[in-house]
Amino acid sequence: MKQRLVLIGNGMAGVNTIEHLLKLSPQKYDITVFGSEPYPNYNRIMLSYVLAGEATAQDIYLNTYEWYSDNGIRLYTGHTVTDIDAEARTVTTDQGVTVPYDKLVLATGSNPFMLPLQGADKEGVMAYRTIQDCEKMIEASRTYKKAVVIGGGLLGLEAARGFLNLGMKVDVVHLMDAIMERQLDRTASEMLKNALEEQGMNFLLGKQSEEIIGDARVTGLKFKDGTSTDADLIVMAVGIRPNVELAKKTGIETAPGIVVSDYMETSIPDIYAVGECATHRGITYGLVAPLYEQGAVLAKVLAGADTAPYEGSLLYTKLKVSGVDVFSGGEFADAPDTKAIRIHDDFSGIYKKVVIRDNKIIGAVLFGDTSEGSRLMQMIRAGADISGMEKTAILREAGADGASADGAGVASMSDDAIICGCNGVSKGTICSAIKEQGLTSVEEVKNCTNASRSCGGCKPLVKDLLALTLGESFEHDAVKETICGCTDLSRDEVVIGIRDKGLTHIREVMNVLGWKNDEGCTKCRPALNYYLGMIYPTTYKDESKSRLVNERMHANIQKDGTYSVVPRMYGGVTTPADLKKIADVAVKYNVPTVKLTGGQRIDLLGVKKEDLTAMWQDLDMPSGYAYGKAIRTVKTCVGEDYCRFGTGDAMGLGIKIEKRFERLNTPAKVKMAVSGCPRNCAESGIKDLGVVSVDGGWELYAGGNGGVKVRVGDLLATVKTEDDVIEYAEAYLQYYRETGNYGERTSEWIVRVGLEHVRSVLADESQRNALRERIDVALSVTQDPWKEAVRSETIQKQLYEVVELK
Question: Residues in domain BFD-like [2Fe-2S]-binding (predicted)?
Fold first, then answer.
């Protein structure tokens, strides 16, 4: 019989251990995982993208729910383990679930440290650690305008960057007189501070917080020097503490984290610990790479495989802080017995420093160009003697160590050298995958090994490893991204295969085009469903089970399992009758929260699944598609009807556009806007397609984005009439539908295919008209999904009825 393995903690360190174990001994254990948060394993490094609204919780999942079920793992989300009975070998959760174990792994992570300030219990004071924290911050940003972040480390700076993207003013308060002082020397810290100030951050350095001001809610922060600053929201990002309460309760030794041996064993037999909760040789690590190194050792121990002991990690950091590349490793501070080699280029914003003691490199700091980080870390780890080297050649000119023709920059690295610090992927792992799986592109390596899956800073090194491993067969200029790890085909190859071979169903595509995984995955199935619908709009029957949950349910699922309902409100314009109808429905179904969205619509939050179809029937309004990869909304200003500056009928044109394109499926969500004058009150310049009234006509702006990667739209065309606007919008949207990668926003698509190319396609009348004809066909067969669900008992039974278990 299989042994029973229980993992307490569903975070990056613990689940990475399970991933290693499944590769080493997939059949040895019956595995159960408990996680306090209501999500599968996700990437905390990417929380800033969620905070900025550029990614959803699902976008940063490292392992989907399907991954757990596919590997036979029982996952309990929203369960906090409250008791371990080491004698009976059982664990019990706060929801009364008790599970026996033969081996137990504690990966309980850490808790954010909250400063014990007077007033810290006021509303508006919080930490930044989880998806729920991000959601609270996003909600607050819709009402409040000034945030204060206490802590000038990485987490604090990422929180501040997120607030800037949400339109808030931000003060960063730091006790020290330099930011990220644990990772950067004085010069690099000052350069980073200057770069972030240009982005809009305001720094209050050398400030010790004394009291949080306000009555029930925070209004400001007072410092010990007598000064203060205003605040609507205060986020503490001042450090973390190992989460050891459960271990202490069980009688496991802690100091300050859970004390572990070189094989990750705790003081109680068959109980292990890994990650931020563990203390090894007196050190508790908070960076990803050391935690993954611990997990690799523990996985071998659990599998019964031979393993070298874990002897600690040499710390290094390679990060992208608010778009700025930084690296540090080893001992980078100057000391009396050290010498340093420096390159400092103010014009290009590049700073490099290598610290040497006894003719050995012991540390390094890189700012702006971090491509040499892995090579320098390898020299630090190896204790390489540089006495015979030309000292000035140790650091190369900026950009000289990028992806090389033959991969020579990575050839000297050992197999255990970490290439992807975010996900702890070594050179040996990548090279083995390239050889064994026949990988030929960075995208394939990412899908197979997770290298470059997070910040993407290691992509040049991954490309070097491809060149080194494949030799002459490596195509340096090939930019082939497969749609997922289930296939070696790119998006274009899949679409061509569907067209040329006349493939009409998802399973047929997978079978004929040689899918590695017969069932596909959560990445390729929705993509194939979209491509088939785009190619065969009149004959393809949409496969709802291949859609993600929000699109399948036609409502946004919330973290508590309820749903959000957003009815269509053309151009952000409504009537008193419709407002009354929405209010009556909200009262009838006890909707707890009614929220105005940034897209000028009304969001009914907290709706029970079993109430959805009845609510839609009572509303008798079209779906607003707030959940879909589709045309979302057209934001408008009041235009010439009411505004003193308005020169165009923004509301009228916005309504026309939204009615023309509602229900149109697109590769990713599409937001549009119409502004009645160049003052641009509808924010047309940062929409997927924005329209601005100017003297004598309308300007169309394409590829804008207001998320974490803010992008101002490019001027696509200037036209004379409203009919011209609709005509160009039809051609533009259809060309995006036909050439965009599934999940690719127009802001990325316009850069990839080229603005001038899109302009030339739309300027050609014959091509423009052909695109318009095809979008007309696609729009002719769309149906409102809410009305379809209301009419169909089958759909209601399959999707919306709650089955009571007896």
Answer: 418-467, 483-532
